[in-house]
């Protein structure tokens, strides 16, 4: 089951194991320049608000309501990353797609796990995901763009602007495998171990933005450990800020700072590296997808305002911690 | 020593083994009470502290606030407010759920509905 708590998706699978739980939040962030260079990890600027889609069913087309899930606001060309938290040691295999295209492999959505190539990430090993896995150790940032204009990964790979949004399925580890793993850990170490779219006129999808250094880790456990009989699924509908206000009556969060303003204010970027985990190779399919800036250039449009390159980033290395947030952004400082 | 005091001391001393910032003095400073008062709480010489101080302790020691309040014999003011607004409904509900297993109680939490996609 999935429920909402403090703008996070809380995933519990009590039918599998009492400890089978994890959480996902959608972090507001800077949009890194889409200029062909590779950037470190940008900060988290707080959670995007999430609401039950059903609460606004009367303001949404029937086809969107049928999908269920949650709804969240994003400005056009705004970036986002997924934060996997909860400090739960219970492993989950997590499939993530945008417009029903897998963000790890670039292949069409299927309701099961694959290992060749691996089309999921493993929690809690993977602390976050900032975008599409385009090369080994490199992602292209998730950037919100309107469906129907040709920017999204969905439109580039399927030729259609049908789904938009973001889709998630979580598979918990089988209970007996978890018990074996924990028993093994206690024996060895004797210590405790420390884890959706919009109406026809409101459809937003995700498109590939700038390049960022981020590793997607291989599944060390193997396909057999995942309990594929008990998936928890969620469709995240993305509404642009105007539509969000019309649908929910709430104001969206403020516009995030630009990468240049943030860097000039001396605020940190981040680097995370886990030498203990193997890394998946990037997707050739996703590597071939064009970025928002590339398509904008071809169309003669300024798809990404404030896209100038950034130099002199102050990078803070993060080791074995999930803390990547910065203090609340204050508009008056920049 | 009360169960509350015992629990606090045990948790704080476990944390102090890994991090000296969890000494009695430093924890007391962070939650804004006198060390002697915190010591008395841990020994059970005084009743558990106020809701506000218990919540600060929960945050500092990484404990669940509702669990710690329950150990202190309290119910958080936000829960009291919820019950006060619809007393009959929530009183009936809580009594009926008294013997229910955890997984049945979790089922009444509002799920994010999964649809067709």
Structure notes:
The complex is a heterodimer of chains A (334) and B (117). Chain A is an alpha+beta fold and 334 residues long. Chain A has one domain (2-319). Chain A is built from seven helices and 18 strands. The N and C termini of chain A lie far apart (42 Å). Chain B is mainly α. Chain B folds into two domains: 3-71, lambda repressor-like DNA-binding domains (434 Repressor (Amino-terminal Domain), Orthogonal Bundle), CATH 1.10.260.40; 77-106, no CATH class. Chain B contains eight helices and no strands. In chain B, helix 2 (24-31) packs across helix 3 (35-43) and helix 6 crosses helix 7. Chain B is elongated. The model of chain B has no long low-confidence stretch (mean pLDDT 90). The interface between A and B is medium-sized, with 25 and 13 residues.
Question: What attributes characterize this protein structure?
Answer:
heterodimer; A: about 325 residues; alpha+beta; nine-stranded mixed beta sheet; seven-stranded mixed beta sheet; 7 helices; B: about 120 residues; mainly alpha; 434 Repressor (Amino-terminal Domain); 2 domains; 8 helices
How much is the radius of gyration of chain B in Å? 18 Å
CATH superfamily of the largest domain in chain B: lambda repressor-like DNA-binding domains
- What global shape of chain A is seen? globular
Beta strand count of chain B: 0
Distance between the termini of chain A: 42 Å
Query: For the residues shown, what is the average pLDDT of chain A?
Result: 88
The separation of the N and C termini of chain B measures 57 Å
- Overall domain count of chain A: 1
What quaternary form is this? heterodimer
**Percentage of residues in helical conformation of chain B:** 55-70%
Category by helix and strand content of chain A: alpha+beta
């Amino acid at each position: 089951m999935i429920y909402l708590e403090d703008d996070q998706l809380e995933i519990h699978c009590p039918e599998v194991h009492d400890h089978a739980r994890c959480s996902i939040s959608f972090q507001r962030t800077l949009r890194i320049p889409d200029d062909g260079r590779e950037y470190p990890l940008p900060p988290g600027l707080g959670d995007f608000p999430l609401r039950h889609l059903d609460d606004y069913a009367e303001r949404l087309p029937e086809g969107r309501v049928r999908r269920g899930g949650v709804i969240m606001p994003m400005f056009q060309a705004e970036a986002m990353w997924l934060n996997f938290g909860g400090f739960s040691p219970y492993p989950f295999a997590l499939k993530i797609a945008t417009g029903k295209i897998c963000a790890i492999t670039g292949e069409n959505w299927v309701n099961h796990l694959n290992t060749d190539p691996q089309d999921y990430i493993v929690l809690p090993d993977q602390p976050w995901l900032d975008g599409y896995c385009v090369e080994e150790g490199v992602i292209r940032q998730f950037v919100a763009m309107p469906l129907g204009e040709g920017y999204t990964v969905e439109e580039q790979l399927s030729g259609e602007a049908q789904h938009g949004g973001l889709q998630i399925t979580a598979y918990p580890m089988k209970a007996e495998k978890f018990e074996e793993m924990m028993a093994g850990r206690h024996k060895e170490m004797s210590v405790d171990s420390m884890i959706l779219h919009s109406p026809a006129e409101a459809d937003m999808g995700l498109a590939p933005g700038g390049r960022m250094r981020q590793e997607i880790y291989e599944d060390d456990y193997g396909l057999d450990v995942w309990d594929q009989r008990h998936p928890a699924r969620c469709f995240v509908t993305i509404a642009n800020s105007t539509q969000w206000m019309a649908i929910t009556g709430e104001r969206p969060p403020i516009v995030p700072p630009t990468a240049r303003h943030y860097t000039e204010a001396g605020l940190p970027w981040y680097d995370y590296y886990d030498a203990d985990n193997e890394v998946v190779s990037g997707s050739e399919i996703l590597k071939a997808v064009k970025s928002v800036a590339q398509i904008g250039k071809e169309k003669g449009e300024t798809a990404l305002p404030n896209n100038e390159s950034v130099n002199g980033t102050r990078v803070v290395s993060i080791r074995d911690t999930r803390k990547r947030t910065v203090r609340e952004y204050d508009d008056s400082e920049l | 020593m009360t169960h509350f005091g015992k629990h606090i001391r045990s948790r704080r001393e476990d944390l102090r083994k890994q991090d000296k910032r969890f000494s009695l003095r430093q924890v007391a400073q962070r939650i804004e009470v006198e060390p002697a008062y915190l010591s008395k709480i841990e020994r059970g010489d005084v009743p558990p502290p106020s809701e506000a101080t218990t919540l600060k302790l929960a945050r500092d020691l990484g404990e669940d606030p509702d669990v710690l309040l329950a150990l202190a014999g309290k119910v958080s003011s936000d829960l009291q407010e919820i019950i006060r607004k619809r007393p009959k409904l929530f009183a009936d509900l809580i009594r009926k759920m008294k013997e229910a297993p955890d997984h049945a109680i979790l089922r009444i939490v509002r799920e994010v509905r999964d649809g067709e996609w």
